[in-house]
Specification:
Distance between the termini: 25 Å
Structural class: mainly beta
Largest sheet: 5 strands, antiparallel
Radius of gyration: 17 Å
Number of helices: 1
Strand order of the largest sheet: 1-2-3-6-7
Order of helices and strands: EEHEEEEEE
């Protein structure tokens, strides 16, 4: 996998939103490295410790989607909208997004379940 970071189970909280159809995923104080640029990250160059927190929310409505290539990949879910509130901090710098949904625009979002590789079974 490329551009991934393991999120410890203790740092993730996913729940169905009460009163509204949808799902939220909340990650708090995820430790990572700030490499300052993509080129520097690709060569594992100089970096400093940083932390990020974010809360993603996918709406529960939307067009149902199913994708299956018949041998390696199966997805079942919905095309939907999503919002995110995001913050980061490191020595001498911090950033926080505007969490208001009115300032966010969704180009593409989907939520669902995926199986691939050894977890794929066309019979499921």
């Amino acid at each position: 996998m490329f551009w991934t970071n393991r999120v410890p189970n203790s740092g993730v909280h996913g729940e169905e939103d009460e009163g509204e159809a949808g799902v939220s995923w909340h990650v708090k104080n995820l430790a990572l490295f700030d490499y300052f640029s993509v080129a520097n990250a690709l060569v594992d160059g100089a970096s400093i410790d940083a932390m990020v927190s974010y809360r993603l929310r996918w709406a529960g409505d939307g067009t149902p989607l199913t994708a299956d290539d018949g041998k390696n990949f199966h997805f079942e879910g919905r095309r939907t909208t999503a919002t995110i509130a995001w913050s980061a901090h490191e020595a001498g710098f911090s950033f926080r997004s505007d969490p208001s949904p009115s300032t966010q625009h969704t180009n593409f979002a989907q939520v669902g379940e995926e199986r691939n590789g050894v977890f794929y079974s066309a019979d499921d």
